[in-house]
Amino acid sequence: MSSESSKKRKPKVIRSDGAPSEGKRNRSDTEQEGKYYSEEAEVDLRDPGRDYELYKYTCQELQRLMAEIQDLKSRGGKDVAVEIEDRRIQSCVHFMTLKKLNRLAHIRLKKGRDQTHEAKQKVDAYHLQLQNLLYEVMHLQKEITKCLEFKSKHEEIDLVSLEEFYKEAPPDISKAEVTMGDPHQQTLARLDWELEQRKRLAEKYRECLSNKEKILKEIEVKKEYLSSLQPRLNSIMQASLPVQEYLFMPFDQAHKQYETARHLPPPLYVLFVQATAYGQACDKMLSVAIEGSVDEAKALFKPPEDSQDDESDSDAEEEQTTKRRRPTLGVQLDDKRKEMLKRHPLSVMLDLKCKDDSVLHLTFYYLMNLNIMTVKAKVTTTTELITPISAGDLLSPDSVLSCLYPGDHGKKTPNPANQYQFDKVGILTLRDYVLDLGHPYLWVQKLGGLHFPKEQPQHTVIADHSLSASHMETTMKLLKTRVQSRLALHKQFASLEHGIVPVTSDCQYLFPAKVVSRLVKWVTIAHEDYMELHFTKDIVEAGLAEDTNLYYMALVERGTAKLQAAVVLNPGYSSIPPVFQLCLNWKGEKTSSNDDNIRAMESEVNVCYKELCGPRPSHQLLTNQLQRLCVLLDVYLETESHDDSVEGPKEFPQEKMCLRLFRGPSRMKPFKYNHPQGFFSHR
Amino acid sequence: MERAVPHAVPLGQVEVFQALQRLHMTIFSQSVSPCGKFLAAGNNYGQIAIFSLSAALSSEAKEESKKPVVTFQAHDGPVYCMASTDRHLLSAGDGEVKAWLWAEILKKGCKELWRRQPPYRTSLEVPEINALLLVPKENALILAGGDCQLHTMDLETGTFTRALRGHTDYVHCLALRERSPEVLSGGEDGAVRLWDLRSAKEVQTIEVYKHEECSRPHNGRWIGCLATDSDWMVCGGGPALTLWHLRSSTPTTVFPMRAPQKHVTFYQDLILSAGQGRCVNQWQLSGELKAQVPGSSPGLLSLSLNQQPAAPECKVLTAAGNSCRVDVFTNLGYRAFSLSF
Prior knowledge:
Structural class of chain B: mainly beta
Mean pLDDT of chain B: 87
Subcellular location (chain B): Nucleus speckle
Distance between the termini of chain B: 31 Å
Distance between the termini of chain A: 182 Å
Strand order of the largest sheet of chain A: 5-6-7-8-9
Protein name (chain B): WD repeat-containing protein 58
Largest interface: A-B, 46 and 43 residues
CATH class of the domain at 118-254 in chain B: Mainly Beta
Helix content of chain A: 40-55%
Shape of chain B: globular
Main location (chain B): nucleus
Helix content of chain B: under 10%
Number of strands of chain B: 28
Number of domains of chain A: 4
Strand content of chain A: 5-15%
GO cellular component, one term (chain B): nuclear speck
Number of helices of chain B: 2
Pfam families (chain B): WD40 (PF00400)
Strand content of chain B: over 45%
Largest sheet of chain A: 5 strands, antiparallel
CATH topology of the domain at 118-254 in chain B: Methylamine Dehydrogenase, Chain H
Oligomer: heterodimer
Structural class of chain A: alpha+beta
Number of strands of chain A: 11
Strand order of the largest sheet of chain B: 1-2-3-4
Low-confidence stretches of chain A: 304-319
């Protein structure tokens, strides 16, 4: 309680205490400045160590006094009370000292704390400053690095090289004196120059654009003009039609053909173009036409929507039919086959007119899925031909063009890829269908520009004009020769069947005037029959008797002698000669295997055929050979040496003039006829 | 049933013509080279083909070894006969005899060394030369053929020394009788005539067709082939193949062969003959047929035995005739293979 009141009055109360502590007396010095009491100031002046001693002394004194009091109280007495009072007053003073010391301690503590607090605050402030500065430093460093890394856009621009720059730039931009030394200025100058140039070029570009616009406009105008011309030209063409007809120049007709030709598939188109070109350039007797339905051709390329409608209809129909009757596998296969062998609706027709006014009509078809072309042939003559029995095959559409080139029999498909397609639908070979579809000869493919290499099948064989052009002339010539030779043979066969060998007057010199042996029979025989004959084995072994050849049997007779001649006629007649094999029945059977002279006769007709060809185009070969055969038989029979043991005259007196009857180790007869002297000699 | 046709290649005009030529080829003559390794064959088109026997007989022989090493056009007409000296090949046919060097003959474009034509009497037709005979002792060549004479030619000078006349029809064949020396000739007139070379006279005549044992009138009287072995002679042709004893001019053995024979030769103790018909016939001297070996040609015209000492491995019998093939018999029992033009 007393400590509290002293604390309250501390700052205002001036106390002058008879305190034992010397420190208190010192404090009066400090009163001079103000008339208040500051204990804080006093704290600064006192020494904390002495205060501590004072505190210890005071506590001791207190303890002593208390102890004395205690003693006195325990003794009791009258003067004790004054002593106790005295001691009580002393202890109160000591208590007062203790309180003051306590206050001083508190003040010191507070001061100490305040000081620490201040210092701490300062430190904190410095610390913050440091942080701020460090942060700024970092920031600045970053900025510096950024600045250093900064790539100016100007470095991305490809500037002209230095030398060029100094050469080209005008001096007010290049400012050589300044820029040479200072790279910064130099770059600036270069950038300036770059800008200059770009501006100029942009100008130019604008100009060019405007030019282009102008020209485009002009083109538009001209196009309009031209398109307006087209209907006028059409009208002129229409007007000129009567003139064309009058002058026999059917341009319009040709034009229509070209229109149709546009719908032809590529091989037919190649054929059409090449054949027309050839016809115009070399051969006036060739005419080309396109047949078939253009609408169907167009329909092949119709867009699928239309066909889908059809399909749905047909599907509905099919469903109906399937409910009634399931189509058999065979019928389905048949349909697939028909689909595979389908022809393009358009076909090209070639008419080759020969000198004697007979015409060979060729119709070329294109099988779309197989990518091959086929041809059908027909020969028509001005007069009706009466076909002799043996000439049945000569002009038949099936065989008239067989083997136009050696080995080209037209019974197999030339496209090796077709075999895989055939396997899918069960077609063995095209041979079964050729009558219907036409023959796929190799020359037909060549005329259409299709080339199938033998080694490996190609994926797509496209029609090639040059291939067609290179084969056109030869093929046309061969075709004409073929037709003419067949027609000639046709006529000759008619005569041969009547037993007359028709020798033309310009071939008469090959034979003597009198020929006694006669041809009595001329018939066709089948290939198998020919192979079965006993005297034809050599020909068969030599590979000259193919199934594409035609076979005939001729019979020449004189008296009792009968000579059978089996003839192989190659389709390539007359460049390839017919081959004869003989069998003579006279005094025994004589063939080339047992009689050297029969062999010599065969040689005369087979090997020496070139003499018998006659004037070009040598259609007389076969008849000349037959006539020679008759002459040879005459010679053979007449020169046969007389057998002395047999009685009677020779059956055939010698009428031929011969120098010698026999010659050489094989005792050959004189088979060679010499013209014009008319005698026979040996080769 | 159809016979399989071997050729699949389409035949154009040229191939057909070549096939026909080969079908109608006849090989008339053969001759072996002095070294024994090559065989020359002449055909009716005038070509001579040289085959290499050593290549064809070797163990690595292929198909090409059976083809000629070289073929050339020797004459315009058929090559009817050939003979070989130790350096030359002599070939004769239509009226001329030509000589070729064996050393040069394998090269392409070989030209004849020389050619000679005997003096003929007729000029209307050039007669053929059917037989050539070499007389080594006198270094002479004897030719005979269509003009019915035998001409002797000196090989050294090339001149024609003598002409032996006597045949009434053309001469088919010649044979040499070494000891005398005498030449035998057989002709179309049916006679075999013996000529003495030194006196150039006809010494003996045998008219074969007049002897009943061997004459066959339906074949004719012509003598197609001759061979002689000192006192003995075998001849054939129209009449049957007969063995004759020359001094007595009597036929001792008649060989029972119906077909006319075109070539006959003595070999060791056998007689080999060939002619119409496929076979090479081997006869014993007694007249028995020892063997008949078929060849590949329907008729044979010439046989050749390669007995050259220089090439014993090529000791073969070759036969040729009415085909383009030469059959090679390595041992007389069977046909080993055929060479072909």
